[in-house]
Write a structure and sequence with these properties.
Length: 150
């Protein structure tokens, strides 16, 4: 199978600046051709996806990396809103969180998450492996939906 032959747009919905920097470093280390767009809460994520407020020029992401524990609107609500919106539901959403709770895993899949991954332990080498597995699967093996501005 062929890898994606263009630069990818990834929306990272993460409130922790340290985890955002860790994600940047891991993407760089894995040499993933992408633009990482970062928002720090669920309300900003929905504004980004709908191109509202400060995000009128936002691109449609190829993939959303979504933390569950967010301020203003938690990741579960963001996931429910994405997957219930005909214009957004085809965007793959990977839950990337610290929670290993069975309830969170089951609820995320009930809300149609495409994947659930835990991001800890957070040493760089372990996190690079998490990002590398996302790269291998989402950007090398599967066919992503075509980008549209719908």
């Amino acid at each position: 199978m062929e890898a994606v032959d263009r630069s990818l747009d990834i929306l990272l919905v993460e409130d922790n600046p340290g985890d955002m920097r860790l994600t940047q470093e891991a993407l760089k280390e894995c040499q993933i051709r992408c633009s990482l767009h970062w928002v720090q809460d669920g309300v900003a994520a929905m504004d980004f996806l709908h191109r509202r407020e400060a995000y009128t020029e936002a691109v449609r992401p190829d993939l959303v990396l979504l933390d569950l524990n967010l301020p203003r609107m938690d990741g579960r609500e963001v996931l429910a809103k994405i997957k219930s919106d005909p214009k957004l539901r085809r965007i793959p959403v990977v839950i990337l969180t610290t929670s290993k709770a069975e309830e969170d895993i089951m609820r995320s899949y009930d809300l149609h998450a495409n994947c659930y991954m835990t991001k800890y332990p957070v040493d760089l080498d372990s996190f690079i492996e998490v990002i590398r597995s996302i790269d291998r699967f989402w950007f090398s093996l599967v066919s992503l939906p075509p980008k549209s501005d719908a």
